[in-house]
UniProtKB/TrEMBL annotation:
Coiled coil: none annotated. SMART domains: BAF. The keyword Plastid does not apply. This is Barrier-to-autointegration factor-like protein. One of its GO terms (molecular function) is DNA binding. Pfam families: SAM_BAF. Homodimer. Heterodimerizes with BANF1. Keywords: Nucleus. It comes from Pipistrellus kuhlii. It is found in: Nucleus. Gene3D superfamilies: Barrier-to-autointegration factor, BAF. May play a role in BANF1 regulation and influence tissue-specific roles of BANF1.
């Protein structure tokens, strides 16, 4: 497993930016892996902020497969979007919880 700076060097700029600070009032589109189109779908379902999407992930007990299935089936995410956004939230939890 990568440590500290090595780990950050292997992250996309968007993921690195998301993990650089607490979640605060960030819009859901700030979550790495969430495209503009997926963000629209999420907003229409009431997930307009990153913290509401994080809440859904936590309600699913951080079960990555369940969360990815939910994103794909209920929100119209692609597999890639589901994997990237799940990883983003998982990494955020590792950093801040």
């Amino acid at each position: 497993m990568l440590q500290g700076n090595q780990r950050m060097n292997h992250m996309s700029p968007r993921l690195r930016a998301f993990l650089s600070e607490p979640i605060g009032e960030k819009d859901v589109v700030c979550v790495d892996g969430i495209s503009h189109e997926l963000a629209i779908n999420l907003v229409t379902k009431g997930f307009n902020k990153a913290y509401t999407l994080l809440g859904q992930f936590l309600l699913m007990h951080k079960n990555e497969m369940e969360f990815q299935r939910w994103l794909i089936c209920c929100c119209g995410a692609t597999e890639c979007e589901a994997q990237e956004s799940t990883n983003c939230l998982k990494e955020w939890c590792s950093c801040f919880l």
